[in-house]
Every structure is written in structure tokens, then in C-alpha cells.
């Protein structure tokens, strides 16, 4: 506990001993080592991310699709890690997600039993640009396999660890105002939702995509405490999302984990993702912030709406240059920058980004999608 909230040589050395060790226990999101994809689970996750694509929900519709049955939303791949920078080593030090890479090799289908394992790949000290003091980067790779032992996808992440007290004293982001909306602005957001189109069963052919064309933007938000909790519970409660005696058992195992809330009660720091006041108290930030997992799912929803049932996600790289705060509205965008062929795959590469209601770019990256070819 003497190291709580501090980055020390001893803490870094202890963490480095875990490099390359395969972790397969219960995940930080509360899921057990093996997870069976059921209709109920697919529906719960799709509802939690507010993506009502019938490929995830309607068995008859999905059977008539190229997938032949219900599939799990592809963004679920990001929820399969066993451990990451938020939970691994350096107790009491806060975590910011730097970037992530998702790669899919096959769909996650109804009835699949998924198993995942996570390895710490690298630990390195870097100069802190967030709050001063010492900072460490931790990189991870998660591999997800189905019941046949085939790899369905990989998920690579990079995390920045820093001293929470330093961040609060720096107050770097306090000047950023929280969003406020007029009734007219809310009506405009609702109109954007109603105007969205899902391509569905109509194929988008590789040959018909023009380099330079932009895909229709996907809007998400404004985020609320309710929408945040809906997402946190999309995969079922567990991990840090527990209460009562389960919470106290969690804090007994990880004595440096909780903070003391405004009522004198120990609570997991996950509350910084849905409580403005608690994020201000713990981190000195203007409000609660979305951790990045939601943005990944929002962006994938937009690309699947555009490419339809006959396309599939191949790879997604995202970097998070700015926070997405409670109350923000996010527009997920993309532009075709390249067409290529790898083996039998006809690939379109997209430059991708998200912007908020202030026109700040909050995510940047690239995506690769596989589309049908007229020559197939």
C-alpha cells in the first residue's frame, strides 16, 4: 500500500515480470473464461450499444443472410480481454486508453463458445503530457478462439498509466465546457437518427465504391448516465460493476481499488464514467468520460450500416486524441481511401474519425472492410 497511487521503480519491475504471461481467468468485464453466444446475450449486447441490426436479433432474417445465423456485434471482440492497463499493476494509478487494433478472422456466431487469453506485451516509461510526474505505457494483446480452437479475432491495446493526484492538481481539461442543448438542437439530433439508412440485404459491391467518397455519418448521443449504465451492463454485471457484499469482497482483494465517495462509502473508480462530480473529484476533469469501448461499437455500427449484410469487418485501428464527455454527441465518419485485393478478399480501406458537437475530433484511425465483388 506504500506504493498506492505512485509509479515507482519497484512497481514497474514487478509489472515487467508479467510480460508474456498468458492470462485466462475471469475478465475485467466480469465474463467467465468461456462464453457461449446465445440469442439472449446477442440481444442484450446489441441493446446496450443501441444497434438493432437484425443480424444480431432476428434469427429468421440472419438465416437468410450470408452469415446463415445470428452473429454477435463485431465490437464485442473489444470486451473479451482478460486484463488491461486499467487493472494490471501500479495500484491507485489512473489509466487512459491510447489506441487499439481489432482484427476479425471469422464471425462470432450463435452457439459459438468463445475463449480468450490476454498477454502483457510491453511496459515502458514515457514522459507524462497529462498531469506531470512519472507515466508508464502498457501494451496488451488478446486472442479469442471458438470451440473448434480457431482464432476468430485479436484485440491489441495500449494504455497510459499516471499518478491520479498529479492529474487532479494539473486540471488540464477543466476549461472544456460540458455540453448543453436547446430544444431545437435536440430535435435536430432526433432528425439525424430518423434519416439514417441501413443497407441491409442489398449488396454494396467493391467495384462500386469510389476512392474519396465519404460514407454516411452515424450519430450517437447525447450520452447520458442512463446510456452509460446500459452499455456497462450490456455484457452482464460483473468485474467492477457489482454492489453490496460483492463490492466489499472486491475491495478486500484489491485494497487500493476504491475511492471514498461524497457519502463516505468506498466505491470502484468506474463511477468516473457516469458521474461528473466524481470525475471532477478524482481526476480534476470537467465531467465523466466515455472510455473508448462505446466509440468502437458506434463506429462499427456506422460502417455496417453502409456496407450491408454482404460486407464484413476485417480490421479496425483507433486512436483516442480527445475525451468524449458525458452529454457529448458524436458523429462517426469515414472516407474510402484505397481499394485492394488480398487473396479472395476485396478490401476497401477507410480513413475514419469521430467529431463531437464542438467539432473537436475525438477519434482517428483506419478501417478495412471486405465487400463482395461483381466478379465472384
Describe this protein's structure:
The protein starts with 8 loop residues before the first helix and ends in a 5-residue tail after the last strand. The protein is 23% helix and 30% strand. A hairpin with a 6-residue loop joins strand 4 and strand 5. The mean pLDDT is 91. The strands form 3 sheets. Strands 1, 2, 3, 4, 5, 6, 7, 11, 13, 14 and 15 form an 11-stranded antiparallel sheet that branches. The protein folds into 2 domains: 138 residues, Thiol Ester Dehydrase, Chain A; 152 residues, Hotdog Thioesterase (Thiol Ester Dehydrase, Chain A, Roll), CATH 3.10.129.10. The protein is an alpha+beta fold and 376 residues long. It contains 10 helices and 15 strands. The radius of gyration is 21 Å and the shape is globular. Helix 5 crosses helix 9.
Amino acid at each position: 500500500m506504500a506504493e498506492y497511487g505512485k509509479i515507482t521503480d519497484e512497481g514497474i519491475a514487478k509489472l515487467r515480470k508479467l510480460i508474456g504471461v498468458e492470462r485466462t481467468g475471469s475478465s475485467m468485464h466480469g465474463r467467465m473464461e468461456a462464453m457461449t453466444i446465445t440469442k439472449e446475450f446477442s440481444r442484450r449486447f446489441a441493446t446496450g450499444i443501441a444497434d438493432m441490426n437484425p443480424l444480431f436479433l432476428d434469427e429468421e432474417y440472419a438465416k437468410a443472410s450470408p452469415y446463415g445465423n445470428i452473429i454477435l456485434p463485431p465490437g464485442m471482440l473489444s470486451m473479451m480481454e482478460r486484463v488491461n492497463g486499467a487493472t494490471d499493476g501500479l495500484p491507485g494509478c489512473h489509466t487512459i486508453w491510447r489506441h487499439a487494433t481489432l482484427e476479425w478472422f471469422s464471425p462470432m456466431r450463435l452457439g459459438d463458445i468463445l475463449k480468450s487469453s490476454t498477454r502483457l506485451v510491453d511496459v515502458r516509461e514515457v514522459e507524462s503530457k497529462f498531469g506531470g510526474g512519472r507515466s508508464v505505457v502498457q501494451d496488451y494483446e488478446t486472442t479469442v478462439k471458438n470451440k473448434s480452437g480457431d482464432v476468430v479475432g485479436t484485440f491489441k491495446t495500449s494504455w497510459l498509466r499516471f499518478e491520479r493526484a498529479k492529474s487532479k492538481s494539473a486540471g488540464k481539461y477543466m476549461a472544456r465546457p460540458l455540453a448543453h442543448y436547446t430544444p431545437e438542437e435536440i430535435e435536430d439530433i432526433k432528425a439525424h437518427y430518423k434519416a439514417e439508412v441501413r443497407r441491409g440485404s442489398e449488396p454494396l459491391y467493391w467495384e462500386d465504391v469510389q476512392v474519396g467518397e465519404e460514407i454516411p455519418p452515424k450519430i450517437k448521443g447525447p450520452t447520458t448516465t442512463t446510456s452509460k449504465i446500459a452499455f456497462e451492463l450490456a455484457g452482464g454485471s460483473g468485474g467492477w460493476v457489482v454492489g453490496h457484499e460483492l463490492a466489499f469482497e472486491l475491495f478486500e482483494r484489491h485494497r487500493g481499488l476504491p475511492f471514498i465517495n461524497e457519502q463516505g462509502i468506498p466505491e470502484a473508480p468506474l463511477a468516473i464514467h457516469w458521474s461528473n462530480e466524481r470525475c471532477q473529484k478524482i481526476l480534476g476533469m470537467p465531467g465523466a468520460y466515455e472510455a473508448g469501448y462505446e466509440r468502437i461499437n458506434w463506429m462499427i455500427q456506422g460502417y455496417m450500416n453502409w456496407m450491408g449484410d454482404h460486407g464484413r469487418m476485417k480490421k479496425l485501428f483507433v486512436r483516442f486524441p480527445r475525451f468524449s464527455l458525458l452529454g457529448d454527441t458524436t458523429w462517426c465518419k469515414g472516407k474510402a481511401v484505397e481499394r485492394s485485393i488480398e487473396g479472395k478478399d476485396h478490401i476497401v480501406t477507410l480513413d475514419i474519425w469521430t467529431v463531437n458537437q464542438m467539432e473537436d475530433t475525438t477519434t482517428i484511425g483506419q478501417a478495412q472492410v471486405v465487400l463482395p465483388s461483381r466478379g465472384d
